Amino acid sequence: xxxxxxxxxxxxxxxxxxxxxxxxxxxxxxxxxxxxxxxxxxxxxxxxxxxxxxxxxxxxxxxxxxxxxxxxxxxxxxxxxxxxxxxxxxxxxxxxxxxxxxxxxxxxxxxxxxxxxxxxxxxxxxxxxxxxxxxxxxxxxxxxxxxxxxxxxxxxxxxxxxxxxxxxxxxxxxxxxxxxxxxxxxxxxxxxxxxxxxxxxxxxxxxxxxxxxxxxxxxxxxxxxxxxxxxxxxxxxxxxxxxxxxxxxxxxxxxxxxxxxxxxxxxxxxxxxxxxxxxxxxxxxxxxxxxxxxxxxxxxxxxxxxxxxxxxxxxxxxxxxxxxxxxxxxxxxxxxxxxxxxxxxxxxx
Length: 349
Known about the structure:
Type I restriction enzyme R protein N-terminal domain-containing protein; 2 domains; 13 helices; three-stranded antiparallel sheet; tt1808, chain A; elongated; alpha+beta; six-stranded mixed sheet
């Protein structure tokens, strides 16, 4: 299978054979393959993915590069970070068979983009001839001693976080517009922050639910005299588990800074976050009928942790809405505070 067919199958590109055009799905850019240079650019783009193993999300075609007061278009820019803020490789493509002078001009063009973006490498190609360079900031005009036999291949991150992110992106890679609204939603920082809180909360909830089921016999032996006296049922344990899960989520976020926050909330915000995590599950649990929380139902369940997990998962959409709102308020207040601080500095001057 050729790279084009593989890229189509992997939903990286979309080939319109009738119009002889190619659409780069991640960038949502369509180019005509009637232009020989575009064919070289396409093959180089696919080579970066399948020969050099760079993630498609870090490769931008026809990327605008700011050069002084003007902007010019680099054929391909490869970035070293997922946010595409740090250019790593500049690639200039020319149609096959160009003259040596045109090829040299393309090399100089690549270096001018690298100088403007602080990229580390320049690759110039016409599909047959290739020139690879390391960019030396202290000697930006060097073209001999910094010439390479090839550009560096991508060194893949082997962490679990990266693997999850890679599979998620692969899931959303599809034909243009089909999952665009959902993709845009997952790219929103507010949604990602709220989703991170909710996901961590569910993780703690699952752990505590499993522990509760495992140690329930011992717990019941210690408290069985109180069950009929105070009308205790499994909803009580459910509420304790959810309270512990909410507290653990916030404590972990505070201590380890595990969740990527746009701002650093104060104590009030942390308390509100805990409340937003706990109240929805408490409310949903109270709406479940008594038949759900009794002994017979608990004994008949094949997976007894579901007596605690199912009501909590039902509350997840409500949690997400409340968390998005709260994080938005926290960010808004932070920005407003920053503007006030800046305004006071201006007045003092």
